[in-house]
Design goal:
6% helix; mainly beta; 12-stranded parallel β-sheet
Length: 479
C-alpha cells in the first residue's frame, strides 16, 4: 500500500480497493447550509477522499458556487463517487463562472469511478465549462474509467477564456473507459476558437465502451469550430497519418441537434450500434464538417442507424454539403475498411449525399450496404441531391494503392447516382479503382429514373476500372 504525501492513511493501489474502502461523507466536514458553505465543505471532503483514493458518498441535493475538487493536477489523485438515490448538484445562479465541477488530473496512472445505487445530475447553470474532467498524463497505458450509474450533465457554457468545453471529458492512455447511460444536454461557448462537445474521450489507448449515451443541443455559440455530440480519439503513438491505437464501441446512442457532427472519430477501430440521429436545428458549423459520423483516421462501422431530418419552419437543418457519414481513408500504415449497414433515413428535406469518401492513404474499402429512404411530411422528389456515395477521383488517381467502393441494397426516391465522383480529368485508374453497385432501386417515376448507377457530377467520365460490377438496379442505367 502506498501512503499519502504526509505519511498518514493508506492509499489503495487499485480502483477495486477504492470501491471497498470506507466512504467519505460530506456531512462529516460541516453543514451544507448554503452554496458558499456547501462548496467549502464539499471541497474539503473531496480533497481528503481523492488524496486517499477513497469513495465519497453523495445523496440528496447540493447547491454550489465554485469548484468542489482540487483545481491543480496532483499525482495519484482519484475520483470515486458512490451515489445513494437521486443526487443533484446545481451551480448557483449567482456564482461567478468557473471551469469544472469535478476535476482530477495526475502525471501518473490513475483510475476513477461513479458507482452505487443512484443517479447523478449536474446542472452547470451556464456557469461552468465542463461537468466532469478526468485525465492522466502517464507515459504508459493503464488505469480505468467506470461510470456505472446514469449521469446527466446539462447547461454547460464556456466563457471567452475556455479553450475546451464539454459535459464529460476523459483524457489519457487509459486501458478501459466504460460509461453507462451518460447524458449531456445544452453545451455552448463564447470563445470562437474553442471546441465544444457533449462527451469526449482523448488519447485512450485501450477500449472505450459507451452504453446508451445521449447528447442533445451541442451548440456553437461563437465561431464555427467543432461542436460535436461525441468524439473519441485514440492514442497517437507516431504522428498522423499513422493509425491511432485504441478501440471504440458505442451501443444505442442518441444524437439530437448537435450543430456540428453527431460523432467524430480519430481512432479507426470503431463500431457504432443502432444510433439514432434527429435534427431540426440549422447546422452552423463550417460546411466541411457538416456530418453525422466522421471517421477521420480510416475504418469505422455503423450498424442499423436511424436518421431523422425535419424542417425548422421553412429552413432545412442541413448544410449544403451535408453527409450522413464520411470515411476519410487517409492513414498510410494500415489497410482500411469502413462501412455503414442497414440504415433508415426519414426526412422532409433533401440530403446532399449519404456517404462521402476521402481516399488518399493506404488501400481502402468503403461500403454502403442497406439503406432505406423514407420521405416525410409530404416531401416529393429526390431525397439525395448528389449521390448515395461520393468520392474525389483526382485523389484516387494520385494515390498508388487500390480504392474499393460498394453500394448495395438501397431503395427510395433517388434521382442521383449510386456512386458519384468529382474532379476527374485524366489518369489511369485501371489498377486503382474497383466499384460495385447492386440491388439499388429508385421509387421515383418518369424523369427521376434513368440515371447512370455510376456517374461523374463534375469533370470527365472515368472509362477504365480495375473492377466494375453492376448488379440488378431497377430505375438506374447499368453502363
Amino acid at each position: 500500500m502506498n501512503r499519502t504525501a504526509d505519511g498518514t492513511g493508506a492509499i489503495p493501489e487499485s480502483a477495486q480497493d477504492a470501491l471497498r474502502a470506507p466512504p467519505v461523507r460530506p456531512e462529516q466536514y460541516g453543514l451544507l447550509t448554503n452554496p458558499t458553505v456547501a462548496t467549502a465543505t464539499l471541497l474539503r471532503a473531496f480533497t481528503h477522499a481523492m488524496a486517499e483514493r477513497r469513495p465519497i458518498e453523495l445523496s440528496g441535493h447540493y447547491t454550489i458556487n465554485g469548484p468542489i475538487t482540487p483545481l491543480a493536477a496532483i499525482n495519484g489523485i482519484e475520483l470515486h463517487l458512490r451515489l445513494r438515490g437521486r443526487v443533484t448538484i446545481t451551480v448557483d445562479a449567482g456564482a461567478r463562472a468557473f471551469q469544472r465541477v469535478f476535476f482530477a488530473e495526475s502525471a501518473t496512472v490513475t483510475s476513477h469511478s461513479i458507482t452505487g445505487d443512484g443517479t447523478l445530475t449536474i446542472d452547470c447553470n451556464d456557469k461552468v465549462a465542463a461537468g466532469i474532467w478526468l485525465r492522466h498524463n502517464a507515459a504508459q497505458m493503464g488505469g480505468s474509467i467506470l461510470i456505472d450509474r446514469p449521469v446527466t450533465v446539462r447547461n454547460v457554457h464556456g466563457s471567452a477564456v475556455d479553450d475546451t468545453v464539454s459535459g464529460i471529458i476523459v483524457s489519457g492512455r487509459f486501458a478501459t473507459v466504460v460509461m453507462r447511460s451518460p447524458t449531456v444536454e445544452d453545451v455552448t461557448r463564447d470563445k470562437a476558437a474553442a471546441e465544444c462537445s457533449g462527451i469526449c474521450t482523448s488519447r485512450v489507448e485501450g477500449a472505450v465502451e459507451l452504453y446508451s449515451p445521449t447528447v442533445r443541443r451541442i451548440r456553437i455559440g461563437a465561431g464555427t469550430a467543432d461542436a460535436d455530440g461525441i468524439k473519441c480519439f485514440g492514442h497517437q503513438a507516431t504522428p498522423f497519418p499513422a493509425r491511432a491505437r485504441g478501440s471504440v464501441r458505442i451501443y444505442d446512442p442518441t444524437f439530437e441537434d448537435c450543430q456540428g457532427r453527431s460523432y467524430k472519430d480519430q481512432c479507426g477501430d470503431t463500431i457504432i450500434y443502432r444510433p439514432v440521429v434527429r435534427r431540426n436545428a440549422r447546422v452552423l458549423i463550417a460546411a466541411a464538417n457538416a456530418l453525422e459520423f466522421d471517421f477521420q483516421c480510416g475504418g469505422g462501422l455503423v450498424l442499423d442507424a436511424q436518421v431523422e431530418y425535419y424542417r425548422n419552419g421553412a429552413t432545412s437543418p442541413l448544410a449544403t454539403s451535408h453527409s450522413v457519414v464520411a470515411f476519410q481513408q487517409l492513414i498510410s500504415d494500415a489497410e482500411l475498411y469502413g462501412a455503414i449497414r442497414n440504415s433508415t433515413i426519414i426526412s422532409d428535406v433533401e440530403i446532399p449525399r449519404f456517404a462521402l469518401v476521402e481516399a488518399s492513404g493506404a488501400a481502402s474499402t468503403s461500403e454502403v450496404d442497406g439503406l432505406t429512404l423514407i420521405p416525410a411530411n409530404g416531401f416529393s422528389g429526390s431525397l439525395l441531391g448528389r449521390g448515395v456515395m461520393e468520392f474525389n477521383a483526382a485523389k484516387v488517381v494520385a494515390k498508388s494503392t487500390e480504392t474499393i467502393l460498394a453500394v448495395r441494397n438501397v431503395s427510395g426516391p433517388i434521382a442521383s447516382p449510386c456512386i458519384a465522383y468529382t474532379s476527374y480529368t485524366r489518369g489511369d485508374l485501371s489498377q486503382k479503382l474497383s466499384v460495385e453497385v447492386d440491388n439499388c432501386s429508385t421509387t421515383l417515376p418518369g424523369p427521376g429514373r434513368g440515371l447512370r448507377a455510376i456517374s461523374g457530377i463534375s469533370g470527365n467520365q472515368i472509362m477504365a476500372f480495375r473492377a466494375f460490377r453492376l448488379g440488378r438496379n431497377p430505375g438506374f442505367r447499368n453502363e
